[in-house]
Amino acid sequence: MSKQRSRDTEIEVALRRELHRLGLRYRVHRRPVRAVRREADVVFGPAKVAVFVDGCFWHGCPEHGTWPKRNGEFWRAKIEGNRDRDANTDRVLDEAGWLAVRVWEHEDPAAAASRVREAVLERRRRLA
């Protein structure tokens, strides 16, 4: 498992390529809120939008997530802990005035980029 990439995964790069194609500019792998030791995969600072690309296995996708049979108790605790941490991150960002957008690894990058773009444009309109 140590060989699993945590940054610049295929879906992450494809999403960033689509966001750039749509004319959006962003920062990569930044902490939206300095007090929280969690990095977002894509950050739109002025609009206060943080995008997280979640892997189906690691974050327990309801569509594609699987529960390993071998060492099942450990993996269930690990994946549910990841889900709890994600929910906590979303709550902390919300309290700080940020919008967390979650993208599953199985999503079409163009559709996900379009969803992110709408969120960013809406936040820009609201904050302007």
UniProtKB/TrEMBL annotation:
<dbReference type="InterPro" id="IPR004603">
    <property type="entry name" value="DNA_mismatch_endonuc_vsr"/>
</dbReference>
<keyword id="KW-0540">Nuclease</keyword>
<dbReference type="GO" id="GO:0004519">
    <property type="term" value="F:endonuclease activity"/>
</dbReference>
<protein>
    <submittedName>
        <fullName>Very short patch repair endonuclease</fullName>
    </submittedName>
</protein>
<keyword id="KW-0234">DNA repair</keyword>
<comment type="similarity">
    <text>Belongs to the Vsr family.</text>
</comment>
<dbReference type="InterPro" id="IPR011335">
    <property type="entry name" value="Restrct_endonuc-II-like"/>
</dbReference>
<keyword id="KW-0378">Hydrolase</keyword>
<keyword id="KW-0227">DNA damage</keyword>
<keyword id="KW-0255">Endonuclease</keyword>
<dbReference type="Pfam" id="PF03852">
    <property type="entry name" value="Vsr"/>
</dbReference>
